[in-house]
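Hey team,

Sharing the phenylalanine--tRNA ligase run so nobody has to redo it. Sequence (383 residues) first:
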Amino acid sequence: KGVNLLLGNAPRLCRIHGPDVLTSHPFNNVTENIFAKIGANLHRRPDHPICIIKEAIYAFFDERHPGVFNKLDDLYPVVTAKANFDEVLVPADHVSRSPNDTYYIDTDTVLRCHTSAHQAETLRKGERAFLVTGDVYRRDSIDQSHYPVFHQMEGVKVLDRSQYSDAAGGTKVAEQELKETLEALAAHLFGTGIECRWVDAYFPFTDPSFELEIFFNGEWLEVLGCGVMEQQILDVNGCAGEKAWAFGLGLERLAMVLFAIPDIRLFWTSDKRFTKQFKAGQLNAKFKPYSKYPPCFKDVSFWLPETGFTENNLCEVVRGHAGDLVESVVLIDSFTHPKKQRTSHCYRISYRSMDRSLTDEEINDIQDNVRGSLSDDLKVELR
Ligand code: FA5
Ligand code: MG
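Structure output:
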């Protein structure tokens, strides 16, 4: 079949610059179901929860800093690797650059994996405070809060010179203003009854860096990353010597907390029982689950190939066959055979539709296809 091991079962054809231009490139790892999501623009459908939360965040910034933030929500998700990585100082050997993590159209072109891809170009256009909202794409694990296509809102604000006297002072002021702003945003969205905590983090483009987590459904859920922008990004993009802060919000995660949406796949359903529960401007809706259908668990065990194995490739294979019927993929056992020096993994795949009951037959078919691709494309030895 000539399938690149590293890239799993990717098709080799992808439209890039609009509907008429097709390109094929051996590095392309964009699968059909991912490709089909481009242009869905959930963040621009007024009655969709992602758009509702976007508007609520806009309202917060308009109230706090009237007329200051410029809002962009229609930047194309196909960007250069340079914009996605180099311009935000992602090191050449950083894991996020791997085709295990990022969807590549060719070696120089990716589906943006974060809205930070637009930081540098927007600064170069002369913007000094802006919000960039868009769909982002990542090869990632599968569970209730991870989906390969999701939405982020990037916020950047360059400080006024009058706010600080030297670089160190500017960093302090930026950190403080950033944290105050995001805490006020959380209070604006969720009220003060919500439990939040700051966690130290690392991003190549900020220093210091933080993540904000919210306690939701019995767990700490990471909702955003942020920090004081690296000086170099400002210096080479028309803001020499200035100070700025930046954040990247996960809009699905925020919407899950606000509307009590238990599973990230629901954002993609067209089931009226979901969509009719949300209306533009209504921030107090709480999702009422329609009857929960039973999950079906399937375990799959295999010896890892000597050529290497990554969980993201497994997840991509499962999504390729199951689409949104897969709820989670969890490693439940791993051991290395002492004599053979080979490692075996056992994964539990949970299948569940949010809209209907599944039949044994359709799940068995999907599972057979998954097993087939695992051995044919990922070269594992099924047990
Ligand atoms: C970033 O993407 C940084 N660009 C954020 C940033 C911007 C930091 C500006 C500093 C300055 P991270 O990979 O942590 O960071 O993702 C940001 C948020 O996106 C996460 O906190 C989470 O809310 C959301 N997110 C990440 N992966 C997924 C996923 N697979 N599905 C749904 N939401 C996700
Ligand atoms: Mg993170």
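The longest strand covers residues 326-337.

Ping me if you want the raw files.
A.
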